Amino acid sequence: MKNSQKVISCALFALIVFLNAACGGGNKSEVVTEEVESTKVATLVTEDYEHIFGEDRPFAQCHASTITGLGDGNYLTAWFAGSYEKHNDVGIWISKGNPGNWSEPELLVKVRNEPHWNPVLFNAPDGKVYLYFKVGKEIDYWETWVQYTEDGGVTWSEAKELVPGDKGGRGPVRNHMLVLSDGTWLAPASDEKIKSGLCL
Questions:
Q1: What is the pLDDT of residues 52-84, one digit of tens each?
Q2: Model's pTM, two decimal places?
Q3: How far apart are alpha carbons 177 and 35 in whole angstroms?
């Protein structure tokens, strides 16, 4: 118990130091600002809040959206939707566009009559946009499926299991993947069968 308290204390201390620096806590914020100014910084532009679709959508509920830029000013977004979460009619839906100009929601994939879950879009270094998602009635036995587009979401490959026969939620799930400096793709995942609350 003491070790976990130390870990939590260290994490809280690090968070406080970060917030202090980020929120103008004296000289530390100036140092951070100087370091940031000497490197290339991405600019974040906030757009007005908007919905991609209105109340006349072709499904009752939707959840777990993901979005990726296509590099030409357009975005591709996906989510799972159907009558309600865990219903057999739930599939993976997509829309493409940019703020104020989105395509109508389209059912992209439904590999069988079981719920589909937690899509993740990944604009990969190989020029493809990958879509990873889960299929299965029970979370403990989810399968991870994948398909890709090479033309910005106009056409898609056939969906296939990431690892045929694998059950239990192999990643990626719910979060964008990262590309490490050596080119390795890093994806968060979880093992739902352990029931320990431990994420892998």
A1: 888 888 899 999 999 999 999 999 999 999 999
A2: 0.72
A3: 27
